[in-house]
Design brief:
Order of helices and strands: EEEHHHHEEE
Number of strands: 6
Strand content: 15-25%
CATH class of the largest domain: Mainly Alpha
Bound molecules: fe (ii) ion
Largest sheet: 3 strands, antiparallel
Structural class: alpha+beta
CATH superfamily of the largest domain: Ferritin, core subunit, four-helix bundle
Radius of gyration: 22 Å
Length: 227
């Protein structure tokens, strides 16, 4: 039997990993001492996951800004409830961006961040097409792939942060699709208000759960948007 106890002791300069296991009736202790490199304190440990978190941070930050602009455009186009939807979902993307930033933890410094960015200020219907395409890319390709990498690399904070985003984007795509259908029929989206979980970005139209079904936090963490 191996892997009975696995301990990691951290001090300023080294990691001490103590592995205790039974072998042939005897208890064997293995001690592995690893030097920390500069800037390696409590950080995300694998560069590929770190890179994915930076990219996702960039993508979410830009989605936030894009939705704020498209929200103003929807208001000008005479669709105040679509404007509300863009504005509320912008906040959800802000939550995702900050979660990814925090999961990146103490990796500090300047990085060149590569992330997909949709551009174009069209009609509200066009903007909704852009929003749906962005959400669907995240749902179908980006987050599932980033999650596989993070799981494989044992990056628990990243796995959580990516999972929260993926679950919210599924809802965003659906809501934007409903809004587009209304707009294409010459109508505003038929909603009153939107609530967003400030912990995971879970998005609810015309309601607020007692407890967030994604992150489990109580209703108090939800932020309500009326415009
Ligand atoms: Fe989204
Ligand atoms: Fe939540």
């Amino acid at each position: 039997m191996i892997d009975l106890i696995f301990l990691i002791i951290r001090n300023r300069n080294i990691y001490v990993n103590i592995l205790t296991h039974y072998q042939h009736g005897a208890i064997i202790l293995s001690v592995i001492i690893t030097n920390k490199s500069k800037g390696d304190l409590d950080m995300v440990k694998n560069e590929m996951t770190a890179q994915n978190l930076r990219s996702a941070f960039g993508g979410e930050s830009q989605a936030y800004q894009r939705y704020k602009v498209w929200s103003q455009k929807a208001m000008k186009d005479g669709f105040p409830k679509v404007s509300l939807l863009f504005n509320a979902i912008a906040y959800a993307e802000e939550v995702h961006a900050s979660n990814h930033f925090e999961a990146h933890e103490n990796v500090s410094g300047d990085f060149l961040v590569a992330s997909g960015a949709g551009f174009g200020l069209g009609s509200t219907s066009d903007n909704l097409v852009g929003a749906i395409a962005g959400e669907d890319f995240e749902i179908e390709q980006m987050y599932p792939t980033y999650s596989i990498v993070a799981k494989d690399q044992g990056e628990k904070d990243a796995v959580k942060s990516l999972h929260y985003a993926l679950e919210a984007e599924k809802i965003h795509s659906k809501l934007y699709s409903e809004a587009k259908e209304a707009v294409d029929n010459g109508e505003d989206y038929d909603i009153e208000y939107v609530t967003i979980c400030s912990v995971c970005g879970h998005t609810v139209v015309d309601g607020q759960p007692e407890k967030c079904p994604i992150c489990g936090q109580p209703k108090e963490v939800f932020k309500r948007f009326d415009e």
